[in-house]
Specification:
elongated, 2 helices, two-stranded antiparallel sheet, two-stranded antiparallel ribbon, alpha+beta
Amino acid sequence: MSSKSIGVSSYFECPSCKCDTIEEVMIDVTISTTISDMHFLPKGYQDWVMNDSVEVEYGLHDDGNPTTEYGQVDRYQCVNCGWVIRDENENAITNPEDLFEWLIEHKENREKELNTH
């Protein structure tokens, strides 16, 4: 079997809001990222600053990503509205293999619908 790559945004269109971006939601995960800057905000600095506080700006590791350990995928969903991608039994899809198949199947179905109208 040969490999196949797909651009998710050309295969996914949220049926609820038409967004083309999917996010992976994980549970029980440890994540680490770099801290790029810290800002001390004294009380009254802005209307919303009720007490002295520190704002943290996060960066990424050298590879451009945060580091994750452990955890498991809880679901894949639309990044905009949270519409959850589900299988034919209405269970949330939780692994990339099933998501890949779902994307291909649903793009084919969407194209068939467009061609019949």
